[in-house]
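User: C-alpha cells for this complex, please. No commentary.
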Amino acid sequence: SQQGEEDPQALSIQEGENATMNCSYKTSINNLQWYRQNSGRGLVHLILIRSNEREKHSGRLRVTLDTSKKSSSLLITASRAADTASYFCATDGGSEKLVFGKGTKLTVNP
Amino acid sequence: DAGITQSPRHKVTETGTPVTLRCHQTENHRYMYWYRQDPGHGLRLIHYSYGVKDTDKGEVSDGYSVSRSKTEDFLLTLESATSSQTSVYFCAISEAIGVKEQYFGPGTRLTVT
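Assistant:
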C-alpha cells in the first residue's frame, strides 16, 4: 500500500510561476524525501527532511513538513520549462524501506 | 549520475520464458533495490539487498527472485515471465537504508508478450 500520496496528480503552470505539490502519509516517519523523474529516466533525489525539521530549502526548492497533519509540501519557485517532470514523495514509515507515492506530473509551459 | 547501470535497457520476451535483469554499481554502496514502475501505481519495491548474499522481500515480490554474489551486482530474475510483469524496472542504491537518499539507474523497459 502507498505510504505517501501526492496531490494534485497533475499540474500545469506557466514559466515563472510557482508550483506547489503536496504529500500526505499515514504512519509516523523518520524522514521524508522528494524525488524528480524526467520522462524516460530514473528518479533523482531532490531533498530530504527529517521528522524534527519543519522547513528546508535547496535553491529554488522549499519543502515543509507538518508531522501533526502527516503532510509535506514541495514548492518550486520561479519555475522553468526544465522543471517539467514528475515529482514523488517517499517516506520510511518508521521502517527500513522507502515507500513512494504515485507522483505529481508537473508541466511548465514556456 | 551515480555509477549505476542496468542491462538490458529494453527487452521483449514471451510469456513463460525466464528473464534476468542486471544492476551494476561502481559506488560500493551496501544497499541495492529493485523497483517496478507502472501507471497508476507509482514505484513499488520488489526486493532489496543489505549486503552480499543478504536479501529481503519488498511489497510485490511474488514471481521474482534476486541474487547478490558481489557488492556491485544485483540480479533480478523472473523465473517464468507473465504479461503482468510488463513494466519499467529500476535499480537503486543507497549508503544506508531508509534514512539516506537513493540513487537510481536508468531503468529497464520489459515487455512480456
